[in-house]
Amino acid sequence: MYLRMAKRVLLEADKRLVWKLAYNFGLKGALSVQRFKRRLKRGEYFPPFLYISVINSCNLRCQGCWVDVAAKQQTIDLESLTRLINDAKAAGNSFFGIVGGEPFMHKDLLKALSRHPDAYFQIFTNGHFITDEVAKEMRRLGNITPLISVEGTEIVSDERRGRQHVLSDTMRGVENCLKNHLLTGVCTSVCQTNFDDLVQEKWLDRLIEMGVFYTWFHVYRPMGPDANPELCLTREQQLKLRRFVVEMRAKKPIAIIDAYYDGEGKALCPAATGISHHINPWGGIEPCPIVQFAKETIHDTRPIDRVMIESKFLHDFRQLAASSTRGCIVLERPDLLHELAVLHDAGDQTARKTAAAELLAMTARTSQDMPTQEIPEKSLVYRFAKRFFFNDFGAYDHPVSPLKAPAVPQKT
Ligand code: SF4
């Protein structure tokens, strides 16, 4: 399997792009995690992986989207984005996740990324704006991997994403990327309506046949004003998905990303471990994209690493999340998150200004944490890589809740 994967990369992708990935993301990314670990020893948290929502606007209207995509357009402007990335690079970072809204609706997106040939960017996109010219430009730049979301069959995609012909427009974007030999990924937010179609070996075979190099199965999270909680996976489905990912990683020549388990299969929250935090289009610094509260902003005179290291809100979020669950605090204990936001008087980062009310209205439910049912990695490569570069980094050893008396977790 490893040989088949290596052969695919060597034969199907542009060699220059493979080199950029290996150097900018592989080597420099590994070094940035080492620097992160050294900072942790000093009690300083600055994530090696920043996720930046560069724009709130989007051409689609997905179920369960927490971004105010129809509100007045807000972007991180070119100069603020440049400064942010430069400051993060100065602190040792080299990888950035670019999120939205739909990032390709940001008029200066590729211009901004072209200023950082020494960094690597993963763009989360619906693919609709990736024309042949855009794909050619990404190939020329060499420091970008598009991660294109596919949410199911034609019918399911239209229903999930609130528009018509969504899948065909998305697949055109995927084809343009593949035609230009980009290292292309496809991701899915797995939910009730696409589980049976996409959590399937034959779907992975189709992606491999098309030339897609990696995939990422997120789990649907019922957030925002149109939360659609009926789409959530059951505990059995979450377990089945985890088992599927572990099996396929050891079998198929396609990389499969997940962000919620260590090599032994123990759950973790990337925001609780501090390996990743999020910046919204207004510049607000949030623990993660669905925790839409912030005390600090990138529009600060201090560099981004100092702002994050000195943030009491982020510190308390990590402690609260880690002391509550190894899973997702938003899903399992929205009440505690609300208390934390009140304690810090953290600003609601939504345009709709209903984030606090939404938290209070949420029903607590299970998340990725499934104690006693952990499924360790079967693939030695994933297991080894996670041991060094993706684990809980000791976050769950001695967390102290900043709240007076958090109640015993209640999951439905
Ligand atoms: S709080 Fe939940 S959604 Fe946010 S990073 Fe943690 S597990 Fe993921």
Automatic annotation (TrEMBL):
InterPro entries: Aldolase_TIM, rSAM, rSAM_sf. SUPFAM superfamilies: Radical SAM enzymes. This is Cyclic pyranopterin monophosphate synthase. Its cofactor is [4Fe-4S] cluster. Residues 44-264 form the Radical SAM core domain. The keyword Metal-binding applies. It comes from the Bacteria. Keywords: Iron, Iron-sulfur, Metal-binding, S-adenosyl-L-methionine. CDD domains: Radical_SAM. Pfam families: Radical_SAM. The gene is moaA_2. One of its GO terms (molecular function) is metal ion binding.
